[in-house]
Amino acid sequence: MKQKIFVSRAISPEVLARLEQHFDVESNQEDRIFGADELLAKAKGKDGLFTTPSEPVTAALFAANPQLKAVCNMAVGYNNIDIAAATQAGVMATNTPDVLNETTADFGWALMMATARRITESEHFLRAGQWKKWSYDSFVGPDVHGATLGIIGMGRIGQAIARRSLGFDMQVLYHNRSRLKPEQEAHANNAQYVGKEELLKRADHVVLVLPYSRETHHTIGAAELALMKPTATLTNIARGGIVDDAALIEALRAGRIAAAGVDVFENEPAFKPEFLSLTNVVLTPHIASASTPTRLAMANCAADNLIAALSGRTPPNLLNPDVAKS
């Protein structure tokens, strides 16, 4: 008898076929969004769950499904999973780090550039038929080359973004929970470790790449935005909740910062509609990892984790190693 799993969102058919070689698979290829109660019901009788950040994996789910052995998230982030409850229930939880570092860094760089150079705003202007003449001050914005880049969250993706700044002759400041090793700083375009307030005051372009947690909730709020230069930009490719979206909207509306690029939102996909009335913000629907090879690699990484966990092995990306020791 094959072990049973539930795949909570639509995934690449080739990855689904791979899982079917190992498991009795119930899948959601119609791609419905399941709430906590529905996911709890879908977990009945399942040995493993293949999840994404849109599904809440709660303590109640673990309590109602004592047979469950593994929950494998197709994402780097895992704040949708109650890790403490998973550990208490003896359920292995995993994520998919590393496979999306470079693609996400590419996108973060693109979003920052689009924000600084007002690409979305100018395209809307052109498409609306408003372009009648060239003007010396049409859609002028700050330079990226030669500017100061501030990165908050200097993990693998943050370091990859810093490396990209080398070709733009930028100075790199970073703030992190802990300082990088000297050789890592050197490889990241000689990045300089500074406090968060100093970074916000000095940077021309601030990029957020830190994980979401209770401690990082609203890392950027009204007070932090007030420290930034009025010519500065803010780019968020981290997680919704890292930024106080209401405070950001007010800062953009008041011109306290020049512009923002936002790929992640509080309560997404139900983001604040006030964003839509602003011209100085570039909005994208949480697509930083959305290249074809990377999304396939993420799905295969989650599948690797699930196959290992249900085969009695320690999965490569185990988030709660205490479970494997028990």
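[next item in queue]
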Amino acid sequence: MTATEIPTPTELHAPVLAWFEQHARDLPWRRPEAGAWGVMVSEFMLQQTPVSRVLPVYEQWLARWPRPADLAAEPAGEAVRAWGRLGYPRRALRLHAAALAITERHGGDVPSDHARLLALPGIGEYTAAAVASFAFGQRHAVLDTNVRRVFARSVTGVRYPPNATTAAERRLARALLPADERTAARWAAASMELGALVCTARNEDCSRCPIARRCAWRLAGKPAHDGPARRGQTYAGTDRQVRGKLLAVLREAVGPVPQAALDAVWDEPVQRARALDGLVADGLVEPLDGGLYRLPAT
């Protein structure tokens, strides 16, 4: 194969699937007992959060709320509390809202139909496709950051995909899907695992890659990224950090918290007030009379 040739789907499927059989991590949401709810919980938690941080929270979550109805029966604030330090806590509110809808609309069972999954609150195209594929073995293009990077390098010949998913990426993902449903679901998991473990954003290990000899980016000499600057993951000193500190106080409290307790976590008053206002606007914090605050009770 020359640097100008593009690998065909069949040239990619067999080696990636064989690699996955040998190297797939034993993750709790991949086990049969996880069920569709376990898969859904994992997909919410894994958004922008590494597996190592998700694992302990996931285990505790499923032990406490093994079914959607168990979570739906609790106040939304308990979901935020149990979310701990996973970050982006609005995901906890969205997962709670999805549990309520599953309980009310679907008798407490996560629906298998892609359109019904997509109609749940907090469920976007990626999560609906991931749950349908990983929980129910269906044929869908599952495009997370890892998969997009594998496809960008192996087929398109560039180091990184665009910052936001494009129509061209979706077309490519559909074109690469195996025809058989079960194989397509396995391919979705395998290509994601390859991006997570081998074809990583930095320090990729081509010596371990099952498709290195077919990779368009490698064959082209690994050209440097020439697109828009990659978005960073800055945290220290940002409103995100302040929001996290404020939520930590509220999570640990057994009752409403006075303003003074929140003021103590961050010295800069303007940024602190902005962060607190944002938490209230997002529904993560409820203001009460007398300058008190709590996690949402509904």
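[queue empty]
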